[in-house]
């Protein structure tokens, strides 16, 4: 038969008073320790005895002792109450200094170019904080996922979040390998994209992302087609290096491949600027010291502001 293990409301009331009386064998000394009157202690003990359903103390005019039920209650209640006190102290300590587990949800593309140096310096500065990165393109609910904060491109962050800038606005470049361009030709106009293999990104909601472009200062989106679909930018970039097609990715992600000649930028005049990458977190709750330390560290290294 299923049992109900829910602790009843008020079940812990009077436990501290009971433990103090049991330790001192005195209502008066227990009252002095807890800073209340002896009558208040007596009322608390009567209430807990009524709730438990057993007499816990043997009282005479000269002494106070524990009944058999009181001895059993004391043996189990004392370590449990001490553990509760210790748990409160541990939680209070985390609320007062930078320590504990800091969980961040981040896209894969920002880890090597942005987070690796940032996290390394942060871990050196705050050795009592453990940093956990969950790399995913999915826009997760921070609270539901148990995350302290997230990192995303600015256009994907909802207005109810507090955002701290990690990068300056950055271009959304279009690149291709020299082998692909030798085979298919170099696009010069936006209409040329119809004749090219364009690598596409599938968002976490299942939709295929259109390419965002800048047409003489006017932002536009174009639905492209091609032989390859990825769910993150690093995978798309790798396919472009292998000559599968044109890829549109955040500029910093393609920097090294462009410098080494593995990729070539094209259609530069149509490249749009994006808001950049931000750290974000809910603004409606108190910030734990571990997250506050990370925010200040980010601001100190990037010059970002919330």
Care to describe what's here?
The protein has helices at 15-24, 27-34, 38-52, 68-94, 110-125, 142-145, 178-184, 233-241, 251-259, 289-302, and strands at residues 57-59, 64-66, 100-106, 129-135, 149-153, 161-165, 170-176, 200-201, 211-215, 218-222, 229-230, 247-250, 264-266, 273-274, 277-282. The protein has 306 residues and is an alpha+beta fold. The protein folds into three domains: 15-94, Arc Repressor Mutant, subunit A; 100-168 and 276-302, Periplasmic binding protein-like II (D-Maltodextrin-Binding Protein, domain 2, 3-Layer(aba) Sandwich); 170-274, D-Maltodextrin-Binding Protein, domain 2. Strand 9 (211-215) and strand 10 (218-222) form a beta hairpin. The chain is rod-shaped and about 105 Å long.
Characteristic terms for this protein:
306 residues; alpha+beta; D-Maltodextrin-Binding Protein, domain 2; 3 domains; 4-stranded antiparallel beta sheet; 10 helices; 15 strands; rod-shaped
Instruction: Report how far the terminal alpha carbons are from each other.
Output: 54 Å
Instruction: State the order of secondary-structure elements, H for helix, E for strand.
Output: HHHEEHEHEHEEEHEEEEHEHEEEH
Low-confidence stretches: 1-10
* Helix-residue proportion: 25-40%
Strand residue content: 15-25%
CATH topology of the largest domain: D-Maltodextrin-Binding Protein, domain 2
Task: Count every beta strand, where a strand is a DSSP E run of 2 or more residues.
Answer: 15
* Molecular shape: rod-shaped
What is the total domain count? 3
In a nutshell, what does this entry contain?
The chain is α+β, with helices and mostly antiparallel strands and 306 residues long. The chain has helices at residues 15-24, 27-34, 38-52, 68-94, 110-125, 142-145, 178-184, 233-241, 251-259, 289-302; strands at 57-59, 64-66, 100-106, 129-135, 149-153, 161-165, 170-176, 200-201, 211-215, 218-222, 229-230, 247-250, 264-266, 273-274, 277-282. α1 packs across α3 and α2 packs across α3.
